[in-house]
Specification:
Elements lengths: L5 E5 L3 H13 L3 E5 L2 H9 L6 E4 L8 H10 L7 E6 L4 H9 L2 E6 L5 H16 L1
Parallel strand pairs: 1-2, 1-3, 3-4, 4-5
């Protein structure tokens, strides 16, 4: 039997964290959440090893791009698949995310929670191939 995939969801919106946490849990993921980049970084530095990091871009303090830069620069959670989940869908944001190592970019406004889970699963499958 395959072990549960561990996902770290990073967003400053508590409502969205709770909703996605519940949905990913129901889909068989082991879920950890962080309300912002700093708590996410603390969790990772304490040794949490997620398979997937799903993160927002627009957050107070350190934004998602800065978090991606820090993870890349300091070689934190290197094996984790990084996926951006943001309301910002401009091509420049998508390109910047990819340049920083994101394997996928999901626009919140145009995706239901079920579609987000399906897209995350699709990205994981592509990464394994």
């Amino acid at each position: 039997m395959e072990t549960k995939k561990k996902i770290l969801i990073v967003d400053d919106d508590l409502f969205l964290l709770d909703m996605y946490s519940l949905k990913f849990n129901q889909s068989g993921y082991e879920v950890a959440t962080a309300q912002g980049a700093d708590p996410a970084l603390a969790k990772l530095e304490e040794g949490f090893e997620p398979d997937i990091i799903l993160l927002d871009i627009m957050m107070p303090g350190m934004d998602g791009f800065e978090l991606l830069e820090k993870l890349k620069q300091d070689k934190i959670a290197e094996p984790a698949i990084r996926i951006i989940l943001s309301n910002r869908g401009q091509q420049s944001d998508v390109a910047r995310g990819e340049a920083l190592g994101a394997s996928g970019y999901i626009v919140k406004a145009s995706s239901t929670p079920s579609e987000v889970i399906a897209k995350v699963s699709e990205i994981i499958t592509k990464q394994k191939a």
